[in-house]
Amino acid sequence: MKDKAATPESYVERANVEALRAVFEKYASIEENGKRFMTDEDFVVKYLKLLPEENYNLETLSLLAGVIDMNKDDRISFSEFSAFESHLCYPDALYRTTFQLFDKNGGGSVSFTEFVDIMSKTTLHKKIPFNLEGSFVQLYFGKDKDNEVSYREFCQFLHEYHEKYSKYAFKAFDLDGDGFISAEEYCDIMFTIKSHLFTNKVKKVFHDFIIETEGTRLSYGYCTAFRAMLTNMEEMKKIYLQASNGSKTREISKDAFFNAAQKTSLATPLEIEILFDLSDKMHDSKTIIYSDLQNMAPEHYMKKVTKRLVDIKMVESPEDRTGFIEFLETAYRFFVGSLSGLLGAAFVYPVDLVKTRMMNQRINTELLSKKHAYNDTFDCFKKVWRYEGIQGLYRGLLLHLAYIAPEKAVKLATNDFIRDKIIEMNHGHISIWGELLAGACAGMSNVVFTNPLEIIKIRLQVAGTYSTLNTESALSVYKELGVAHLYKGAVACLLRDVPFSTIYFPAYAHIKPLFADDTGYNSPFSIFVAGALAGAPAASLVTPIDLIKTRLQVIRRPGQATYNGIFDCAHKIYTQEGIKAFWKGGVANKLRSSPQFGLTLVTYELIQRVFFVDFGGSKPTGSFREMSKGAANLASSSNPDHIGGYSVAKPIFVGMESKFGLFLPKFQHGS
After folding, report:
1. C-alpha–C-alpha distance, residues 596 and 500, integer Å
2. Which of 53, 186, 525, 559 is deepest in the core (most CB within 10 A)?
3. What is the CA radius of gyration of the chain?
4. Confidence class of residue 139 from pLDDT cuts 50, 70 and 90?
5. How far is CA 332 from CA 325, 339, 435, 509, in A?
6. Torsion 47-48-52-55 (CA) sign
7. Stretch 252-270: mean pLDDT
8. Dist. CA 497–CA 490, nearest whole Å
9. Higher pLDDT residue, 527 or 538?
């Protein structure tokens, strides 16, 4: 079989050649025959900062530089610098870089001597010596150790070798041969050999957890199951999604998880027991949701998709959040919500005006001229356009925008704030009742802040119903109402907005993941569709109370019924106009609410993606792609000189240490 595979597709975007050359020239310290070169120190210490600036281990320096120095002439040319940047862009960059570390002579294969030379220098081997002459190593290098192992085979060997190491370490600590080691010894093994399997959250509780659940002595079976559970966390996610029918927010019990697992044979009962016990320790819940698994999953990262114009980190970790930071986060969401609301409202305002006109039209249309009597939604739109012009469709727009900015800002920010608090109190979980409560609070806060502006807006919208020459303005309506009547219809407004938000926000939270791709990412279009779909049923269900609110807030014209409160209004509409009257303007209401909320939420979430500020709190779901990363944390380097593939160079070298145990001494006299 051929050893060479097809060149893989680039995974990280390559750097511009001129920009890369500029970086090279900046760090290259020697010049020969008109060409500049980097020294080993230039590349490893000054550029990548893989070793300390002083007293670094010279042998380690030479080994790390050998990864890029393909000519083995103790200097790095621009062509070598560029070639290494290229291979860092490939998805198997971690394995490629590790292979080049062992392939000291650049021959394209690894000999037994090269393998032993590197491995014997690692701190792991010095602490827990592995039998490099044993039968396992001979399977790859041969009984006489004369086999040259290719890249593909060496990757497999290195993976198996590191898996064997944890078993070998257990035997080394099990001096009595009874199949047990102490909890401290197991922690030492895991943190030394399998450190890449630990997220910070798991590492923080690991020691106390195994003491609480198993005591001070651990069996080989338990140790193996714990390691397998962390290693196979991606399989655990698949089991969860099967048990939850694809939902990422459904609470799954241990029994339901067991039932799904036995259909696939992806996890053992002991692994599942450990998974749920560990999740309970971390999240204080006997059930799990998808985010619990993400908190425990070591080999994934959330890859940003949208290019950021602003990227600000307010805190280093969620634990650093203060009350002031939470206040800033709410203020930021309020501002973003205002901008989002303006765009959505301006886009659908003509439909909102038509909805209000239809809701206000009584059964006695003979009081109206032919041009002001509307047969249906589309007839209303046509007549407003014909007799009042485009300015008629946008009558009251400026006031509406002044009203809608705080309205949407308060609603969105309040829902997010209450959800965050519930999730925080429940260690990452939120029930459907919690989602309903957050939505209801959003609706209540909205009424308090915006009812005065809404009543003025509605009166301006219906002003043209009786005369196209009407010159009413926001100021004239305000003077007519007076301060005492600005909250007229507020109870009806409350009965409309609380149910709407109670339905809308939970519906959106559950519909949105259904339109995400396999990596959990929501495109802008999928957000719009989810927002629009969630808005339709919510708008339909609250149309009757919205109509009652409109009737209460508009000015009564001669010959029209007088309404004394919600129940009197509902009774008179029913007796005078029939049950169907409660859904007047219902079509327009859906045509308004669905696209308006879809567009508002697209804008709300995209602004947070583009102008990214990390307050240490929650982010809108679907903003990132959940990707497998091996051990390397592929978050881009903060060093502006680390461009293209070099943006992940340092994490790749860190991954070599954590995933394969290749810890090399950093200091000259270190070990």
Report:
1. 14
2. 186
3. 33
4. very high
5. 10, 11, 22, 21
6. negative
7. 88
8. 10
9. 527
Calculate mean pLDDT across residues 410-420. Answer: 89
Give whole-number Cα distances, 422 to 198, 252, 276, 446, 641, in Å: 27, 19, 21, 20, 42
Q: Residue 288: beta bridge partners?
A: 252
> Which residue is listed with tokens 């007519």?
480
Mean pLDDT of 213-232: 92
Q: What pLDDT is attached to residue 631?
A: 36
CB neighbours (10 Å) of residue 245?
A: 8
Return all residues near 175 (Cβ < 8 A) that are at least 6 apart. none
Distance CA 197, CA 208 (A): 17
For every residue of 629-640, DSSP letters joined together read -TTS--PPPS-T
Phi, psi of 471 (to 5 degrees): -115, 25
Q: Which residue has the higher pLDDT, 360 or 303?
A: 360
Residue 365 pLDDT? 47
Identify the DSSP state of 648.
Answer: G
Tokens of 432: 């459907």
Structural contact between residues 257 and 276, judged by C-beta atoms closer than 8 angstroms: yes
Q: What CA–CA distance (Å, rounded) separates 24 from 640?
A: 13
| CA-based torsion, 427, 431, 435, 438: positive or negative | negative
β-strands 35-37, 180-182: how paired?
A: unpaired
Structure tokens, 477 = 């309506």
CA 671 distance to own-chain centroid: 40
Contact 358, 377 (CB under 8 A): yes
Question: At which residue do the structure tokens 């103790």 appear?
Answer: 74
pLDDT at 465 over 60: no
Look at residues 391, 290, 325, 335 and name the one whose alpha carbon lies nearest to residue 622: 290
User: Which residue in this structure is represented by tokens 């992806």?
Assistant: 266
Full-model pTM: 0.64
Amino acid at 270: L
Please, what sign has the CA dihedral across residues 375, 378, 380, 385?
A: negative
pLDDT tier, 573 (very low <50, low <70, confident <90, very high otherwise):
confident
Mean pLDDT of 271-290: 91
642 Cβ contact list (under 8 Å, min separation 6): 48, 636, 649, 650
Helix or strand or coil: residue 524? helix
Q: Does the pLDDT at position 669 exceed 70? A: no
In this prediction, residue 301 carries a pLDDT of 47
Q: Is 245 left (phi over 0), alpha (psi -120 to 50) or beta?
A: left
**CA–CA distance, 141 with 576 (Å, rounded to integer):** 94
**pLDDT score for 197:** 81
In contact, 374 and 357? CB cutoff 8 Å: yes
* pLDDT at position 256: 92
**DSSP codes, 144-210:** TT-PPBPHHHHHHHHHHHHHHHHHHHHHHH-TT-SSEEEHHHHHHHHHHHSGGG--HHHHHHHHHHH
Residue 598 carries which side chain, given as an amino acid letter?
G
CB contact at 8 A, 337 and 412: yes
Q: How far apart are CA 517 and CA 502, in angstroms?
A: 27
Q: 613: part of which helix (H) or strand (E)? A: strand 611-614
- Contact at 8 Å (CB) between 332 and 617? no
- Token pair recorded at residue 631: 């051990």
Is the separation of the CB atoms in 10 and 89 below 8 Å? yes
Residue 339 one-letter amino acid: L
* 129 backbone dihedrals φ, ψ, rounded to 5°: -60, 130
Residues of the chain with pLDDT > 70: what percent? 80
